[in-house]
UniProtKB/TrEMBL annotation:
Domain called VOC: residue spans: 7-132, 153-271
InterPro entries cross-referenced by the UniProt entry: cNMP-bd_dom, Extradiol_RC_dioxygenase, Glyas_Bleomycin-R_OHBP_Dase, Glyas_Fos-R_dOase_dom, VOC_core
Organism, as annotated: Paradevosia shaoguanensis
Gene3D superfamilies assigned to the protein according to its UniProt record, in alphabetical order: 2,3-Dihydroxybiphenyl 1,2-Dioxygenase, domain 1
Signal peptide, first to last residue: none
Parts forming coiled coils: none
SUPFAM superfamilies: Glyoxalase/Bleomycin resistance protein/Dihydroxybiphenyl dioxygenase
Domain Cyclic nucleotide-binding stretches: 77-122
Name of the molecule in the record: VOC family protein
């Protein structure tokens, strides 16, 4: 069993409009845009990152906004709901805020003994807020949401699978422990994690397979401290029979990817070097940052990409 993984690092999804996506996360959820760059594999579209003040691993939601992309079809083989942690007693504030900003799909409930507010993003993305009184992570409070209500970071993510067995064994191999079951959903927790500590498995044997599109999660990333720890995890996965990519430099972290038995794309990402490697902390996410291999495209990309609010 591995011990290098420390919880979630980031979750990356698809969108169809960069301006709408940016406004939702910065204005409605009050997160900070910590990086404005491009998809390294398709530089004609943005890669936008939202999180806490510095983009701490375990807080960062990221998006590839592809103009005019069709909406994804929910189903199995994907991340179903991405869940953020908020302070105890703050859900009435968020319900009122979501009503003010016309956020869709808002319903109240409870999960694993915690109060929960589910809602949808602009592309039908599945989200929830969970009150977690034990979450003491610092927050970004310059996005219009005060300290007593602001999002702390990720709480958990759910995986929708036709058969959860092999993925559950994978999570245990990655260091997760089965923690609880509620309404048929199994919860796995990483001991000594970074706060974004839970993965929930929802088994839906009769459900259709998901199709990727706007509102779909492209991949989910797990955090390791550094490149040495990442290489240890990569070797262990290879030795177990998984097809793992070589290490890829994403400028703000190093990444390896592999497909899980249930069809979900997993990434192992380093906490280093961080989002302040090419911008001062006070100005994160303001300028368009390009990887070296795409710098020669700057003039064309600045003319092509949608302008975004600061």
């Amino acid at each position: 069993m591995l011990n290098q993984i420390k919880g979630l690092h980031h979750v990356t999804s698809m969108a169809d409009d960069a301006q709408k996506n940016n406004a939702f996360f910065t204005n409605k959820l009050g997160l900070r845009r910590v990086k404005k760059t491009v998809n390294f594999d398709e530089p004609s579209v943005y890669h936008l990152y939202y999180g806490d003040e510095i983009g701490t691993p375990g807080t960062v939601m990221t998006y590839f906004p592809f103009p005019h992309i069709v909406r994804g079809r929910p189903g199995t083989g994907e991340v179903g709901t991405t869940v953020f942690s908020v302070p105890e007693g703050s859900l009435p504030y968020w319900r009122e805020r979501f009503e003010k900003f016309s956020v869709g799909g808002v319903t109240e409930g409870e999960s694993f003994g915690q109060k929960r507010l589910t809602f949808t993003g602009p592309d039908g993305d599945g989200f929830a807020l969970v009150e977690d009184k034990g979450d003491k992570r610092p927050v970004w409070t310059q996005g219009g949401v005060g300290n007593d209500e602001a999002i702390r970071g990720f709480h958990s993510a759910s995986l929708r699978l036709r058969d959860g067995g092999a993925t559950e064994e994978l999570l245990k191999f990655m260091g997760y422990q089965e923690a609880d079951t509620s309404n048929g959903i199994k919860r796995f927790a990483i001991p000594g994690g970074n706060g974004a500590d839970f993965i929930d498995i929802e088994t839906l044997p009769e459900a259709q397979r998901a199709t990727l599109g706007a509102g779909s999660v492209h991949h989910i990333a797990f955090a390791v401290e550094d490149r040495a720890k990442q290489l240890e995890v990569r070797k262990a996965l290879l030795d177990t029979g998984y097809q793992v990519t070589p290490v890829i430099d994403r400028d703000y972290f190093w990444a390896v990817y592999f497909r899980t038995p249930g069809g979900v794309l997993f990434e192992i990402a380093t906490n280093e070097p961080g989002f302040d490697r090419d911008e001062d902390t006070a100005h994160l996410g303001e300028a368009l940052k390009l990887p070296m291999q795409h710098e020669h495209l700057r003039a064309a990309l600045e003319n092509h990409l949608q302008p975004l609010e600061a």
